[in-house]
Amino acid sequence: MDVEKSKQAYAFIQKEMQLHQKVCIHPQGYSMWPFLKEGRDSVIVKPLPVSSMHRGDIILYRRNDQILVLHRLHHKNKKDFFLTGDNQTKIEGPVRQKEILGVVTTIRRKKHTFSRFHPLWLLTSHLWLLFRPIKPYIAHLYHKIYNKGE
């Protein structure tokens, strides 16, 4: 998403979050691949108190007052959040509470809907964070197997 579109989306999302409304977002890019895939998935983001956000949750935040980002919560302290994309090894942060817009509560994938409390979502979230240091090797192996017939 370019910066101008992101600014427009931010204004709309920020307004909806202040009204405690849910917002549907279609993720773009590959930082949350394979959990979220552009063109396949949409997510519902809801404003929640930071006290109810936990390791593994997918957080929507605004990076550097410009780009909207969906990344997974790696850890937090009293005032800062540290996040990572599922397709990344780097931990981003500190992200300030004021930059956080909401948390993904639901994923829509084709005809299926998954809550953030779905057992498969929870298992995948925790495993993916655990495997963070070796994700590039997992992705390479996946591509090698997946693209074998091409």
TrEMBL record:
Domain Peptidase S24/S26A/S26B/S26C: 10-104
Top-rank taxon, per record: Bacteria
Database matches in InterPro entries: LexA/Signal_pep-like_sf, Peptidase_S24_S26A/B/C
Name of a matching Pfam family: Peptidase_S24
Protein name (record): S24/S26 family peptidase
Organism: Jutongia hominis
